């Protein structure tokens, strides 16, 4: 408390940080395999880096999980709505963008584009105030968090080797997903893959399983998911993710009540309003909005607190870039249940674009940066390997 002789000195008011332009750089060349039916190729763009420039010389960075060329088109549509606005008002501006484009469709390209803009706005607010995003959100519940290494499922022998290689790198939690699991229509293969992963990870490691039922033409329904959940319980699996198609809310509701392992989902849902029936009906044990798709940090934080009110655990979906991971780390600082973050194993878009790459500590955890904004810095030369023109992001 300040003494009478040392009164509290109120900081000077910040001037507006007017947005002069927003740029997007599609990432190409190293897109990781996703295990999808129509598999992405390395040269495909599934992520974009967004830069919000201001008249105060401060630039914020974000990430969108969609084809970067769609993001560039989305910025052209949104430009009349954001030019000249104050970047220090992320929730106001992001909601303005949502509210004034609803008639073009909610949840698609524009929502994904706004997600990256919003992350960048919070980055600017943190830089302007000298505070990390986690502190701006009201944290901090934790200073470090356990990452789970997110890996594509492989045939059992390969799966065992892949898990072992990332265990050697220091990871102590793993999620395996997609690939042949559930798609080969062979329950014996599904079980063999999970057994191989558990043996390689060790009994003490966390092991999570993602069926990936949001993939095109998912072949299974509730009964397969129920039988598979019972199998997964034998291997102490921490959660069963996307076990049925993403719109099958009744199946999710019933599965949650009979499954011996927790049920996770909702990564494909966008905007907070769409989460209300999933949370109010108790359709999942763990809700997984993706900050680079759902509407950004402004939207993610509302979903996270709403989930907490319903007694549902919030763990962000994070199959994205280093900037998406940086946002997830800051969110982990700000919410009580967010004790894990997703970390794609072997993606150059995570490992290869920062000046100081993320590094595991001796226990296999990540320190949450307590620096202004997102707390990370893009390396311009590294990023240039994955996009045709980085200059607009930094000029």
UniProtKB/TrEMBL annotation:
InterPro entries reported in the protein's UniProt record: DgoD-like, Enolase-like_C_sf, Enolase-like_N, Enolase_C-like, Mandel_Rmase/mucon_lact_enz_CS, Mandelate_racemase_C, Mandelate_racemase_N_dom
Pfam families for the chain: MR_MLE_C, MR_MLE_N
Keyword Lyase: yes
Domain of life: Bacteria
Listed GO biological process terms: amino acid catabolic process
Any one GO molecular function term: magnesium ion binding
Mandelate racemase/muconate lactonizing enzyme C-terminal domain segment(s): 156-262
Alphabetically ordered keywords of this record: Lyase
SMART domains with a match to the protein in the record: MR_MLE (SM00922)
PANTHER family: D-GALACTONATE DEHYDRATASE, D-GALACTONATE DEHYDRATASE-RELATED
Protein name: L-alanine-DL-glutamate epimerase-like enolase superfamily enzyme
Organism: Chelatococcus asaccharovorans
């Amino acid at each position: 408390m300040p003494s009478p002789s040392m009164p509290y000195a109120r900081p000077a008011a910040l001037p507006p940080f007017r947005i002069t332009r927003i740029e997007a750089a599609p990432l190409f060349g190293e897109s990781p395999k996703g295990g999808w039916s129509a598999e992405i190729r390395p040269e495909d763009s599934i992520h974009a880096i967004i830069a919000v420039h201001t008249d105060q010389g401060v630039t914020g960075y974000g990430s969108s999980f969609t084809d970067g060329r769609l993001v560039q088109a989305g910025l052209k549509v949104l430009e009349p709505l954001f030019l000249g606005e104050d970047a220090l008002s992320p929730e106001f501006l992001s909601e303005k963008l949502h509210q004034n484009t609803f008639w073009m469709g909610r949840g698609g390209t524009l929502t994904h584009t706004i997600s990256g803009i919003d992350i960048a706005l919070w980055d600017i607010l943190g830089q302007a105030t000298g505070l990390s995003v986690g502190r701006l959100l009201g944290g901090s519940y934790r200073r470090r968090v356990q990452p789970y290494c997110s890996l594509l499922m492989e045939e059992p022998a390969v799966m065992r080797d892949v898990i072992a290689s990332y265990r050697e790198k220091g990871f102590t939690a793993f999620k395996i997903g997609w690939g042949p699991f559930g798609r080969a229509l062979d329950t014996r293969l599904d079980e063999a893959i999970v057994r191989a992963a558990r043996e390689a990870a060790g009994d003490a490691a966390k092991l999570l399983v993602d069926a990936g039922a949001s993939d095109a033409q998912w072949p299974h329904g509730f009964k397969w998911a129920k039988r598979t959940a019972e199998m997964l319980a034998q291997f102490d699996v921490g959660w069963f993710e996307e076990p049925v198609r993403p719109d099958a809310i009744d199946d999710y509701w019933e599965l949650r009540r009979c499954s011996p392992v927790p049920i996770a989902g909702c990564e494909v849902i966008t905007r907070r309003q769409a989460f209300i029936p999933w949370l109010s009906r108790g359709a999942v044990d763990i809700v997984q909005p993706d900050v680079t798709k759902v509407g950004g940090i402004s939207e993610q934080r509302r979903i996270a607190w709403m989930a907490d009110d319903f007694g549902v655990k919030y763990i962000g979906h994070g199959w994205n870039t280093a900037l998406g991971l940086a946002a997830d780390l800051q969110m982990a600082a700000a919410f009580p249940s967010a004790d894990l973050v997703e970390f794609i194993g072997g993606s150059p878009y995570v490992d290869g674009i920062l000046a100081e790459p993320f590094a595991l500590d001796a226990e296999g955890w990540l320190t949450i940066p307590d620096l202004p904004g997102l707390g990370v810095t893009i390396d311009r030369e590294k990023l240039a390997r994955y996009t045709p023109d980085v200059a607009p992001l930094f000029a």
